[in-house]
Amino acid sequence: MTALAASAASTLAVQPSLAGMTRAEIADSLRALGLPEREIRMRVAQLWHWIYFRGARDFDEMLNVSKALRARLADAFALRLPEIVEEQVSSDGTRKWLLRLAPVDVQDKGAEIECVYIPESDRGTLCVSSQVGCTLNCSFCHTGTQKLVRNLTTAEIVGQLLVARQRLGDFPGRERPTDGLTPAGEGVRAVSNIVFMGMGEPLYNPDNVMAAVDVMADGDGLSLSKRRITVSTSGVVPQIERLGAECGPALAISLHAVRDDLRNALVPLNKKYPIHALLQACRDYPGASNARRITFEYVMLKGVNDSPAEAKELVRLLKGMPAKINLIPFNPWPGAPYECSDWETIERFSDIVFNAGYASPVRTPRGRDILAACGQLKSETEKLRARARLAAG
Ligand code: SAH
Ligand code: SF4
């Protein structure tokens, strides 16, 4: 092991994992191991194929790599993924995984995040987290009540997709586990779509999120189309521009209100980036077209943002923009200060938007029974602290 790899291994107390890394990170790791520069490209391509196309879990599977090099790799590195510490399966087939990340230093026990898999007949969607917790405190969101512990690394974001593909048997040539699977429909990849709608604000961790999108979309590996990868943001305007220019996944905006005074209360970030600036960034988002519409998410809060006048104002605000509006029934969580709008109110709102020419699907709540629905994610990392406080009090 080189001095660099050895010092990384000793401070982390674990070997660095190549699974989830970008090409540049894998190349740097191989350089640190002392591989000659002329070999690096070829070795990166080999590792890339085994890790991302074949789903290898052990260096010894990599039969086109010499036995001696496999031993060196296994000595210096791991192919470790986030560990599934709990799997809950909803009555509707939604699965929620509680994942433990590798410790970042000797004091760290390994932060926990949640990741949700939603199978449907024509697709399988994986909802991934980008941070442990969130700093933004939207008043209707459970995750917002959990303090930010830290940003996820690129490898930890990609690792969520790798875990799901392993668990669902979604790598070519690997067997599907048989215990109670709920895959998507026949002939559909188990994970065909990614949404960054788990814990955290992706555009507060833009470098790692964009690098992760690029790994997920790489045609020699995980091969998801960027059109099927959606980054959802509460409205970090300058980073929306960067996301469009440097990466270009599908964009979703958590709008939730049509007036600044109300949006300030629901999504406090609005005080920094108000509605008109946010919508301008959407109009400028490259590639937005009728085939690539921007999604506007709108949580339905009873008596707060759900009137017909607000539906009409929403249509007016979005005029001329290739958009679809996703109405999300509010998912309750313990102690939440809101209720979900009545069904008739949601339908009336949806009709107004639909009649103005916008698709306005109401997002069927999935996995509510296991607190896996939008905004209900919150990991044990915080829950334990709350429990400890209770015990102390
Ligand atoms: N931080 C990003 C992505 C994660 S939240 C964002 O805010 O866009 C994913 C979606 O779930 C967002 O639209 C969010 O506003 C919504 N959401 C949060 N809490 C919710 C709740 N309790 N019920 C329904 N949707 C919720
Ligand atoms: Fe954070 Fe998004 Fe929740 Fe707001 S809605 S607190 S930005 S996770």
From TrEMBL:
Main location: cytoplasm
Keywords noted in UniProt: 4Fe-4S, Cytoplasm, Disulfide bond, Iron, Iron-sulfur, Metal-binding, Methyltransferase, rRNA processing, S-adenosyl-L-methionine, Transferase, tRNA processing
Binding site for S-adenosyl-L-methionine: G200, E201, S232, S254, L255, H256, N331
Gene Ontology BP, a term: methylation
Cofactor binding note: Binds 1 [4Fe-4S] cluster. The cluster is coordinated with 3 cysteines and an exchangeable S-adenosyl-L-methionine.
CDD domains: Radical_SAM
GO molecular function: methyltransferase activity
Keyword Membrane included in the entry's annotation: no
Enzymatic reactions: adenosine(2503) in 23S rRNA + 2 reduced [2Fe-2S]-[ferredoxin] + 2 S-adenosyl-L-methionine = 2-methyladenosine(2503) in 23S rRNA + 5'-deoxyadenosine + L-methionine + 2 oxidized [2Fe-2S]-[ferredoxin] + S-adenosyl-L-homocysteine; adenosine(37) in tRNA + 2 reduced [2Fe-2S]-[ferredoxin] + 2 S-adenosyl-L-methionine = 2-methyladenosine(37) in tRNA + 5'-deoxyadenosine + L-methionine + 2 oxidized [2Fe-2S]-[ferredoxin] + S-adenosyl-L-homocysteine
Function: Specifically methylates position 2 of adenine 2503 in 23S rRNA and position 2 of adenine 37 in tRNAs. m2A2503 modification seems to play a crucial role in the proofreading step occurring at the peptidyl transferase center and thus would serve to optimize ribosomal fidelity.
Species annotation: Methylocystis borbori
Record-stated family: Belongs to the radical SAM superfamily. RlmN family.
Uppermost EC category: transferase
Any Pfam family matching the protein: RlmN_N
Additional detail: Reaction proceeds by a ping-pong mechanism involving intermediate methylation of a conserved cysteine residue.
Active site location: E114, C374
Compartments it resides in: Cytoplasm
Gene from which the chain derives: rlmN
E.C. number(s) listed in UniProt: 2.1.1.192
ATP-binding found in the keyword field: no
Coiled-coil region: none
UniProt xrefs under PANTHER family: 23S RRNA METHYLTRANSFERASE (PTHR30544), RADICAL SAM CORE DOMAIN-CONTAINING PROTEIN (PTHR30544:SF5)
Cofactor: [4Fe-4S] cluster
Radical SAM core domain span: 120-371
Name this protein carries in UniProt: Dual-specificity RNA methyltransferase RlmN
